[in-house]
Amino acid sequence: MKIEAKTVTRGIAEGEAIISHMPISFMMGIDPDTGIIREPGHELEGQSVAGKILVFPMVKGSATGAWRYYIAFKRGNAPKGIINIKAEAAAAVSAVITETPMVHEPKDDPLEWIDNGDYVIINADQGFIEIEKKQK
Amino acid sequence: MLLTKREKEMLEGKHGRGPQKSMEILVTVGECYNAEKMIPITSVHIAGNYTVMRDEGIQWLEDFAQDGTRVSVYTTKHPEMFDFEDYQELNVPEIYQQAQKRIDKAIRSLGIVPTYSCHHFLVGNVPRFGEHIAWSASAAAVYANSVIGARSNQDGDHVALAAAVTGVIPEWGMHLTENRRAQVLVETEGLNFQEFTTADYQAMAWHAGKVIGENIPVFTNLPNNIAIQNVRGMLYTFPITAFAATGAVGVVHLVGITPEAPTLEAAFGGAVKPLDTLSITQRDVDRAYNEISSSSEDKVDLVIFGCPQCSIQEVQEIAGLLEGKKVHPTTELWICTSNWVKTLSKRMGIATVIRDAGGRIVADIGAADGPHLYLRERGIRVVATNSARGNYHMHGLFDLDTLFGSTQECVKTAVSGRWEGKK
Q: Which chain B residues have a beta carbon less than 8 Å from that of A27?
């Protein structure tokens, strides 16, 4: 399964997907020491995004979140790649300063196609996402 | 995006590493928002501080400042953790001393003016009506859009730094006239503004922001003689409860105050009718107080003023309330401000009044942020302040128990050691 998407930052990243239907705050959300989402009541509360391909609609909250994302990255706890429905400044800046491959505005809604644990490739050089379903 | 020859050269690295990195950031963000081009800016303010940057962020800033990278636009800096003049007295732990000194060195090397102030618009960073600017402090950007009529998005620090170095920013959001028009009409006929304290104005804005969300509001009947600290109180509270989802919107039209809104029609951009109308009652304002305070504790460890930093008028008001009284021995009173207001306070003798009462004026810090990194370690847990925004941040960032009330109630609290505001 292949979905076309617009490049935010170039590069290729692949790995296990973690998906969220809810927006994520980089400022209040991700714990830089573990990569675990801490926001109370969040759909990913208690789960780690470290080393994963993170698929979610968009970043919410303060643009200051880019510093927090950078700290998580330097401590080895950031995602490997980002797929957004709609990128905004905090996510885009986070991806640029950490050289994390990122795409947005996919032609098909990836949240309809990707499950947690699927193997996902982001090819941000050519502008597509490839999905290999997890063995049931 | 369409780039000029000079912008392209920057992106290709012909002007050095700093401008190249800056242009990469700006083009990436601009393309996300389908910006057509870059536009020149005239003023930048950097909000980032150690609370959000940590050692990794300082390292990023130091790397960015390498190779002689300099800002090309007038740029000021937000408060940090301690007063550069009095930090020995404050017993600031070594790790924070080192961190602030590293940040100071990096921003000076970039050519940023070391104001350490969040009322930068009182210390010389004053854009004019219609100018494009990049102020990376969400509340200050709302103030600039709404009171000065300059145009700023709620940019993050990296975008603001990149704009400061290159002198340009992508044209999107608040930079475009069509995105600045009012959408929701706010009616306040039921409120008696003549009796309102600055805290009441903030409570009103807290409620309005929650209901309005990401829409742009217009207030029509604020008093003609409304004091500027009341306007500022409202505008600094708004971004806490409104605009929270995207952080992208940032103008509040105040008819008769906002340069783009001399009339209600102008606020709506012509004949457009409001999407919605919101009517605020005194009950809404009273209820907001309960939501803003995060604590119901009685014994208060610290009363702190200055989110944003106190103007000289506010320091005078606090000194007037404190005169001849003593701060309770187990409660501290801090007044956070810029170095220039502290200097004025000394010159006017009000610094002595505050010191004699047992209070302290601290420059270069804001009330809701930096100092709590070490005050928390020192056992400060219950904090009272006259800022709704301050309450929200102290509770959210430092897990403090916070109480919100008027300036008068907060000073009374400092003297009795017990909460004297609404319960």
A: 52
Would the CB atoms of B28 and A9 count as touching at under 8 Å? yes
Calculate the alpha carbon distances from B90 to B6, B87, B369, B380 in Å. Answer: 48, 5, 16, 14
- Averaged pLDDT, A6-18: 97
CB contact at 8 A, A68 and A32: yes
Chain B residues near residue A57 by CB distance under 8 angstroms: none
pLDDT mean over A101-114 = 96
Degrees (nearest 5) of the Cα angle A60, A10, B248? 25
Q: Which chain B positions have a beta carbon within 8 Å of A60's beta carbon? A: 244-247
Determine whether A25 is an active site residue: no
Q: Do B24 and A92 touch (CB under 8 A)?
A: no
Q: Return the C-alpha torsion angle B151, B155, B159, B163, nearest 10.
A: 20
- The pLDDT of residue B323 is above 80: yes
Helix (H, G, I), strand (E, B) or coil at A75: coil
Q: Is the dihedral of CA A87, A92, A95, A100 positive or negative?
A: positive
How much is the pLDDT for B19?
A: 98
- This complex has an ipTM of 0.96
Q: Which pTM was predicted?
A: 0.95
Look at residue B330 in the predicted model and tell me its pLDDT.
96
- From A20, A25, A48, A62, active-site residue: A62
Residues of A with CB under 8 A from a CB of B: 8-9, 23, 27-28, 32, 58, 60-68, 70-71, 74-75, 87-90, 92-93, 95-97, 104
8 Å CB contact of B32 and A97:
no
List own/partner pairs for B66-70 with CB under 8 A and 24 or more apart: B66/B17, B66/B18, B67/B16, B67/B17, B67/B18, B68/B16, B68/B18, B69/B16, B69/B17, B69/B18, B69/B19, B69/B110, B69/B165, B70/B18, B70/B110, B70/B111, B70/B165
Query: How confident is the model over B207-232, as a mean pLDDT?
Result: 91
Asked whether the predicted pLDDT for residue B271 surpasses 70, the reply is no
Residue B385 contacts A where some CB pair is shorter than 8 Å: no
Q: Is the CB of residue B128 less than 8 Å away from at least one CB of chain A? A: no
